[in-house]
Amino acid sequence: MKNIKNDAICSMTADFAQWYTDVCKKAELMDYSSLKGFIIYRPYGYAIWENIQNYLDKKFKETGHENVYMPMLIPESLLQKEKDHVEGFAPECAIVTRGGQNELEENLIIRPTSETLFCEHYAKIVNSYRDLPKKYNQWCSVLRWEKTTRPFLRGSEFLWQEGHTIHATEKEAREETINMLGVYRDMAKDLLALPSITGRKTEKEKFAGALETYTFEALMHDGKALQSGTSHYFGQGFAKAFDMKFLNSDNKLDYVHQTSWGVSTRLIGAIIMVHGDDNGLVLPPRVAPTQVVIIPIRQNVEGVLDKAYELEKTLKDAGIRVKVDNTDKSPGYKFAEAEVRGIPLRIEIGPKDIENNEFVLVKRLDGDKETFSMDIDLIKLINKKLDDVHEAMYAKALKHLNDNIHNVDTYDEFKEKIECGGFLKAPWCGKTECELKIKEDTAATTRCIVPDGHEHIQGKKCIYCGEDAKEEVYFARSY
Amino acid sequence: MKNIKNDAICSMTADFAQWYTDVCKKAELMDYSSLKGFIIYRPYGYAIWENIQNYLDKKFKETGHENVYMPMLIPESLLQKEKDHVEGFAPECAIVTRGGQNELEENLIIRPTSETLFCEHYAKIVNSYRDLPKKYNQWCSVLRWEKTTRPFLRGSEFLWQEGHTIHATEKEAREETINMLGVYRDMAKDLLALPSITGRKTEKEKFAGALETYTFEALMHDGKALQSGTSHYFGQGFAKAFDMKFLNSDNKLDYVHQTSWGVSTRLIGAIIMVHGDDNGLVLPPRVAPTQVVIIPIRQNVEGVLDKAYELEKTLKDAGIRVKVDNTDKSPGYKFAEAEVRGIPLRIEIGPKDIENNEFVLVKRLDGDKETFSMDIDLIKLINKKLDDVHEAMYAKALKHLNDNIHNVDTYDEFKEKIECGGFLKAPWCGKTECELKIKEDTAATTRCIVPDGHEHIQGKKCIYCGEDAKEEVYFARSY
Known about the structure:
Distance between the termini of chain A: 36 Å
Oligomer: homodimer
Helix content of chain A: 25-40%
């Protein structure tokens, strides 16, 4: 009875990829469109994204950022102004060649990212140090023509935010890069109950056109890493390519110092793969579109629905996202639906409960079931339970992360351990060649440089070539 | 001193079009990109749009709508499924022919509107009357390749929301069409202080593929009308083209009944052209990104900035959008900037004011200046003034609208009065031919059918052909 819907979900251990797709579909997060690589964000999936947007938009504004909107099309010549950048993106561009029934004189690229547009605009509007910093952000979708696509994780079109800032000094730009990575890491922890490792990307893995790329990486249930957001320090590279000069406080012309940073709907993929289970989604309470579902038992009995609506009103007025499932499905079907959708708390209430002046509260995370008196302070109880669930989910995910970080010193050990998934911390010589060989052998890539890695590598050798190690890096197989 | 910036704004009477462009630029609402027809929404302009979004998004959700996101690209074959629709949009499409360095097998259209995508999805997910209604909305940008473009009014890309709903009965769909028009009309009045006329479009002017289109039209300062939002009733036309069938409560297959409705960043153009003056923008308080600017006089004198921040904190904590202009510009320059930007209220505070335990409050709308004691209930005062300004702006715009609606019964009178701008209410035979001839002669088009027009046309003749009138219509020149 209980698993009417969940039956349709493949078990995680049987086939993780199939489980993932099943959850995406059965929880009604998305649907495929007829165009390969382009998904439809259904109401439930989009509502998760809206909650992420609301959280981040507030943080961005609190930290002095302003939203803007740039055109979705980039003239080909503009994209080509920064050499590394265009090389990185050209292979995956979608190109508009016709408009208004005419061939266009110049091809237009649907934005894969908007650095070039921001640069062109900044060059026009900034003259003096008094105009700096400019700290802009944009919410939009971008296009990158992908061969292999998976809902939320890799798509030809995805939703994201892209922050683009310019500063008078290198110091300020570097601080911005690190601060925004911090905003992301905190968001992951506080909103999504997602622990992560953070650090700088290697030369090979950094963003096209950046001097430095910082990343936060989460560990999925299957042991693979997911790059969940990045923050880039550009130095003055784009500034020189786009002639973004300003008069500094010493009255001398200088180039601006630049950053960009972004997270995308990929975060929804992370939520699914870190917290989900064989019954479907398990949503962290703070990002859940519905935090509490109230399921009436024998709802046709007089008083049951009224009581359900009464509880709903109490919670709704306190700002808790709650709804009564008053559809004409059976309670068992409703339980299963609420489970697939990962709603953190479920309240059950029937004629007998009302008679006893009580209700039943069930936690999605562990199925834990408790009975409470109707006389309890409901708002306080629910807020407490939501916080408890958040903390428990974070602790569980953090344990999984920590249990799956291993130090390795030899390549044999590396090849053995990488098969078990997780992050491998290993000494590395700093050469791209070794990264490429390791990837070829093991499908593992460097995820980031260990921030305090220098403390561990004295006297150690690169696991691949045996030369002196210059860095300690996290390796993992990844999405 | 006062008009440092405003000098750069052309006067309205001298050249309305130039005045409009000057305001857009000088108030820093937008900038041109290097691509013709594509503008950059700068922070101040985008913040106005965000306030419109926040208001509407809340209303949409309160009325049972859910947000989704559909792909930005539409396969050409999908767009072609509904004949009238594709005929309407094909001439202004932007077409992607290459992706990932390959020629595509099928051309992809950047969405000019998303009916076809919603239809395809709805056809997949709706089976039974239990699945209905579906009331979805999407916030996004759309592309329509335009030859003549003007910031916010007509662009090749613009930001909008598009609601798409399907229903089990014609009655419910018709109600939705009218209700959403009402949501728009109320938003215009309550948020933007914009009065409007509403009604049904003629056959010639309706949306490509709709059975009926309803519009709300505002009157600009120069006497031209602006179609500010539309709501469409589709009947079952798209439903048949896209096979959107469902099992109704009698267990019979039926086609769904459909609507769509949208408003765009065009509303920003309406705000500018209805409320603005020769000194720049005049923003309705409820949509203004900054409602109160506090300008310190002699801000280097000890205590002045502190007092300014104290007032700012009091207002900010009460949810009023306020900021202290603490830049190192002169007060006169700051006054002028606040004027160009149309900030509803300005507080001036200097050493002498502090000595006298008072501050000066200036209204942008009329330059009205009052001095208040610091002991006043500041929050109550400012909220009252913001409401007063809103009401005064609405009353002024309503007077302008009402003063410029004229009844005409003959074509001579029509041709004379149309030169003065405004809406002309005229009897009309109902034939597209007459509309076309009138447009050719006078550049005026039907804006909408007068809702209670039948009461006025008994015995009247079409102003153009002299045949019996079937409708009374509003004519106007328009944007």
